[in-house]
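[step 3/7] fold_predict: job queued, chain A
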Amino acid sequence: MIIREATADDFDAIWTLFEPIASAGETYAYPRDIARDEAQRLWMVLPRKTFVCEDDGVILGTYYLKTNQAGPGSHVCNCGYMVAAESRGRGVATAMCEHSQQVARELGYKAMQFNFVASSNETAVQLWHRLGFETVGRLPRAFKHPTRGYVDALVMYKWLEH
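[step 4/7] structure written:
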């Protein structure tokens, strides 16, 4: 498994894992019918960097890294991660999160913040806690899950400097 910076040519493969995750509506606050062009803009154009995790040329997951806020908040970055359904449980998200923290430090960020983690995404919440993130905020009923209804969204944060 290797993690490398994504190229424009990678988006076809990224889209094959992005589209089912977005259309499920269970973890990301993207429109469930998001257009491919808009997904590409959000995942590949707006972030500071986008990466893919691959094994033997097959993309297993992807993440982006971007500045969370401008000006006095620009020392905090934000990331989003997606793992292909068939690759879950193989340590892909863990590897990408650890990689993203190293890249963030190299780029001069002092902290990482996840702005809107659906509390119903228990696997991700547990993983982020295990990797040192704290839940620093809870937005009551801010995420509309397709089967569970309104669930809380969490703000999770980690100071990156040692």
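[step 5/7] annotate
The longest strand covers residues 134-145.
Helices lie at 11-24, 36-45, 92-106, 122-130.
exit 0
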